Amino acid sequence: MADLCDELLKILKKEHVIKNADMKKYTSFKAGGKAALLVIPQTIEELMVTMEALRKSEIQSFFLGNGTNVLVKDSGYQGVIIKLGDCFSNIEVKGETLTAYAGARISAVAKEALEYSLTGLEFASGIPGSVGGAVFMNAGAYEKEIADVIESVEAIRVDGQKKYHLDKSECQLSYRHSIFHETEDIILSATFKLKKGNRDEIAAKMKELMEKRNTKQPVNLPSAGSFFKRPTGNFAGKLIQEAGLKGLSVGGAQVSPLHAGFVVNTGDATAADILELMKLVQNTVLDKFGVQLEPEVRILGD
């Protein structure tokens, strides 16, 4: 790891190569352990050099978006986490297409579309993650998902050797999945194909969805959004509620009394609390309904 740090410091600033980074500060759960190294590239060149150095070092790595769908175990992550710097948040609109870099918040992209009276991204206005994370997970809400509006993606090979282009059909988008789960390549930017609409109607729809989110979801407590993937033919929150688990707590982790599909940090939850609660929910739902719930949240660490 020391040799890798030395290599990265040849091109990255010292403040962008962080040892023993407390991942509570970088994840929406506000819980969990430390990463051995956090690297924050500020340019495409820095990103490619970082990926090349990681390939040579053979140290495990993980690419972090806005940290809204990740939990690092209390024991920490003994590898390198890469997080895009602020310069990877640009958004550009040309006609009815919108291109956003991977570090931009998908909610900010939806608001930019509104400014140009472009419709199609209203569903994303309340999603807290980044564009890269949203494409990686084919994020969705209110019966819509990224696959409905995406046109293409620019990415970098995981070894940092090549930048390339993928059309929508090549991204293999399905429920909470993309081709990047298999390739582990890095999403640089995404282009969305939208339609001209009425600005007032777009704004009204965004307001409606935001109000629905704020009244039905626990937005005032740290969480990772919907904790479990939707099981075939059902809904995780519905099963958890019918199992009588709403409000169930383990330490500082709780099944939200407002929406059973959410696990929240009530103030002092550890990653162990969250994971123990996850297993308790999974076992109870499996016993009662024969359904195995799978976490949507990505869990890092030994």
Description:
Cell wall formation. With 302 residues, the chain is of the alpha+beta class. It contains eight helices and 19 strands. It has a five-stranded antiparallel beta sheet with strand order 6-7-13-11-12. A hairpin with a 2-residue loop joins β9 and β10 (144-145). α1 (2-8) runs antiparallel to α2 (44-57). 43% of the residues are buried. The mean pLDDT is 95.
Mean pLDDT figure: 95
**How far apart, in Å, are the first and last alpha carbons?**
17 Å
CATH topology of the largest domain: Uridine Diphospho-n-acetylenolpyruvylglucosamine Reductase, domain 3
- CATH architectural designation of the largest domain: 2-Layer Sandwich
Provide the structure class.
alpha+beta
Provide the succession of SSEs: HEEHEEEEEHEHEEEEHEEHEHEEEHE
Percentage of residues in helical conformation = 25-40%
Task: Report strand order across the widest sheet.
Answer: 6-7-13-11-12
Q: Quick one: biggest sheet?
A: 5 strands, antiparallel
Number of helices: 8
Low-pLDDT sequence parts: none
Number of domain modules: 3
Radius of gyration (CA) equals 20 Å
The level 1 CATH classification of the largest domain is: Alpha Beta
Give the CA-based shape: globular
Please state roughly what percent of the residues sit in beta strands, choosing from under 5%, 5-15%, 15-25%, 25-35%, 35-45% or over 45%: 25-35%
Number of strands: 19
